[in-house]
Design goal:
Blueprint: E1 2-8, H1 14-23, E2 28-32, H2 38-43, H3 45-62, H4 79-103, E3 107-110, E4 112-116, E5 120-124, E6 130-140, E7 144-146, E8 159-160, H5 162-165, E9 174-178, H6 182-194, E10 197-201, H7 213-225, E11 229-231, E12 235-240, E13 246-252, E14 255-261, E15 263-266, E16 270-272, H8 279-282, E17 286-287, E18 290-291, E19 304-306, H9 317-331, E20 346-348, E21 353-358, H10 361-366, E22 371-377, H11 382-387, E23 393-399, E24 405-412, H12 420-427, H13 432-437, H14 447-456
Parallel strand pairs: 1-2, 1-6, 2-3, 6-19, 8-15, 9-10, 9-15, 10-11
Antiparallel strand pairs: 4-5, 5-6, 7-16, 12-13, 13-14, 17-18, 20-21, 21-24, 22-23, 23-24
Length: about 475
Amino acid sequence: MKYDIIILGSGPGGYVTAIRASQLGFKVAVVEKENLGGICLNWGCIPTKALLKSAQVFDYLKHAADYGLTINGEVDKDFNAVISRSRGVAEGMSKGVQFLMKKNKIEVIDGFGKVKPGKKVDVTDKDGNVTEISADHIIIATGARSRELLNLPQDGKKVIGYRQAMTLPTQPKKMIVVGSGAIGVEFAHFYNSMGTDVTIVEFMPNIVPVEDEDVSKQFERSLKKSGINIMTNSSVEKVDTSGEGVKATVKTAKGEEVLEADILLSAVGIKSNIENIGLEETGIATDRDKILVNDFYQTNIPGYYAIGDVVPGQALAHVASAEGILCVEKIAGLHVEPLDYGNIPGCTYATPEIASVGMTEKKAKEAGYEIKVGKFPFSASGKAKAAGTPDGFVKVIFDAKYGEWLGCHMIGAGVTDMIAEAVVARKLETTGHEILKAVHPHPTMSEAVMEAVAAAYDEVIHL
């Protein structure tokens, strides 16, 4: 069975790569051991957003009076129905990928793929049968899984990862969330909205530590206001699951503290799926859990490539897709430029949302830039006030000398849909003055971008 391109994994890296390769005229096969769509569609990006939407609607219902509305009867939730809706959304998206595979004449091979020398792949199906296939080009897109710490082993019941967090049979009364990256805070927000008593434990001084410090502080205030307990500069030293629930010994600046809960969610990052896929036998170079590649995702062995969470760079779905498209376009002989990892947007979908791209204020200063900083609060936005979502702000950072847009950081309602303006503007090397002259519609949340830029240049109107 010979193909032009074989792709291991069908997540947002793998399946997007396969479709683009098919569009370019290649005969393509995708090897997938579980469900089409990978973690993102089945256990990550998509089903978590379904859970968060349920939380948002529930919150609206609880605060209907704030909008002049009256609900007769008690407002409550059906936790199992919320979980079921999320799984249904994920299933629908996976079926959508199946349709795309058929539409683009891509062969899907069920099983576990292992690369071999000579541009070959062994595929082991669920019954243990092995089939050998080959191609001129083999792309590894096997993704990642929840990282386990030695002192925080996951048993899938009391100490869980994100997959179990999406399908708990009953809602816990108390939950400890270890780690405050996007995964941790999104689940913390969801369960808190559903009525669970949630405590976040974060090792770093600020939650969502990759974000601009102003955003982190605002987000912490918002989460605390919603009732989430937050412990920063803290680490879980050990867990005891011998009783009914879980006891976590937490080391803080003031000493050790024991937290008790029904469930502990470990959200301390991810680990690349590079074990037992034939890298050593094939001679593909790795370093610290990552496959080494060049700017066009070629490994050190000709004909073998890698994209997504298994290579260095941001472990994000849209990054994997962009890498895969770039990879196959290079294989096809098209002119492509290396991906600009400094212009990748990051999004967190809790309430309030967080979106950012480029340098934080701290990073810009450390890089030696003389900067102009502008900030516009949503409390001064007519659209935000009318929508009942005045929390948050837009913050922009410009190079004072040349006007380069160095960074944009947002926290508030709907900002994950707004960040693309900054991404495109930075891609086009747009200056702050050009943003000011681009008329933004009123009333919208996006006006805050223009107003923040105006603030940076001392031209702000509505502050």
